[in-house]
């Protein structure tokens, strides 16, 4: 059917030849009389013209296919760049800023429960520097939960220069990542992971009442301006290894534990 359709198109576009129109030739062809209606030279000329016509159609279809595929890929790339990028958010504890290849969502203050509160909340928070308020009533109530600022308790350690200083934090957005994970006892990432920052594992003092979580604080910490007055609150201490059920080696008795925060695409 497609062959007949192409011949009909040719009929409309071309002039008559000596024995009549292409339309008449098509009718002759359909009736099995093509060879008697035309001489051999005329039949060959018709074949060449038809082949040329088919070549033009095929080239047009190839061009159309190429353009369609290019347009599809362009639109696909736009969709991926707009909606397909994965990202991950993490907190950089102990720093005011994010790494240079991450977007800073905000810089804040580390906050948590007081170290000697038996009903303490375990996890720290990165509190915004520009808080907003809902419906409130000023004045401390006995029947509320509390949140305090955090202080470094690092006397006599490699981080002794920040002892008693208040602790900052930054919330960071890293693009083209699907997950962020803290690896304790590592200062480099495993194969296939990308380093966000390195630090030291920190938590609450082991004899305090309040429970805490192990958190990775940056190895080169910042402090809050104007702090250092030993106001207590949520206190963080470096974590060191204790041998026994913890295997030594590879761990070493009394050695501070490092950490690495890593992301993966």
Task: Describe the secondary structure blueprint for this structure.
Blueprint: H1 2-13, H2 22-30, H3 34-37, H4 40-84, E1 87-93, E2 103-112, E3 125-128, E4 148-152, E5 168-175, E6 179-184, E7 194-203, E8 215-218, E9 234-238, E10 258-264
Parallel strand pairs: 4-9
Antiparallel strand pairs: 1-5, 2-3, 2-4, 2-5, 6-10, 7-8, 7-9, 7-10
Order of helices and strands: HHHHEEEEEEEEEE
CA-CA gap between termini: 53 Å
Count of DSSP-assigned helices: 4
Number of strands: 10
Summarize the main sheet: 10 strands, mixed
Molecular shape: elongated
Percentage of residues in DSSP E strands:
15-25%
Q: Helix coverage percent of residues?
A: 25-40%
Measured on Cα atoms, how large is the radius of gyration?
38 Å
Question: Can you give the mean pLDDT?
Answer: 83
Structural class: alpha+beta
Give the low-confidence spans: 1-20
Key phrases:
265 residues; 10-stranded mixed β-sheet; alpha+beta
Structure, described:
The protein starts with a helix and ends with a strand. Residues 1-20 have low confidence and may be disordered. With 265 residues, it is α+β, with helices and mostly antiparallel strands. It has helices at 2-13, 22-30, 34-37, 40-84, and strands at residues 87-93, 103-112, 125-128, 148-152, 168-175, 179-184, 194-203, 215-218, 234-238, 258-264. The longest helix has 45 residues, at 40-84.
Quick summary:
With 265 residues, this protein is an alpha+beta fold.
